[in-house]
Design brief:
133 residues, mainly alpha
Length: 133
């Protein structure tokens, strides 16, 4: 049995008799494949940072080397904590930054784990870009 058939068998009991479980399973798989990849989410966040926040390459180069990487690591560590170390009962937007957070506290804006990973990736990409000649 392939993946599509397994999904169809799983959802069949929950569908009306006149709806094809295979068609629904195919639609679900197609929708999942249409979701942006992690790299695409990170790229879109980097564009948002430049366009909406004004964090251009020139702005990034004004920071000392490693500062953007430290900020990215802070978001990645919070995402790790949210995904693996919490009981799910705490508000993800109230998580304080770790000791590597290099900016003022008002710049710290954690969200859900995936969004935090996207922010981390975009900050790391900005660090790579600002560090290259």
């Amino acid at each position: 049995m392939n993946d599509l058939e397994r999904i169809a068998v799983t959802i069949a009991p929950y569908l009306p008799a006149d709806v094809s479980p295979v068609d629904v399973a195919r639609d679900v798989v197609d929708a999942l494949h249409a979701l942006p990849t992690g790299a695409e989410l990170i790229s879109a966040e980097r564009v948002r940072q430049v366009v909406s926040e004004g964090w251009t390459p020139d702005h990034d180069r004004a920071h000392p080397v490693g500062v953007l990487a430290a900020a990215g690591c802070s978001y990645a560590l919070v995402a790790t904590s949210q995904l693996y170390l919490t009981d799910g009962g705490s508000d993800p937007t109230q998580v304080p930054p770790g000791p590597s957070w290099p900016f003022d506290l008002d710049a710290w804006k954690p969200e859900d784990p995936i969004r935090n990973l996207v922010k981390a990736g975009a900050l790391l990409a900005a660090e790579i870009d600002r560090s290259r000649p």
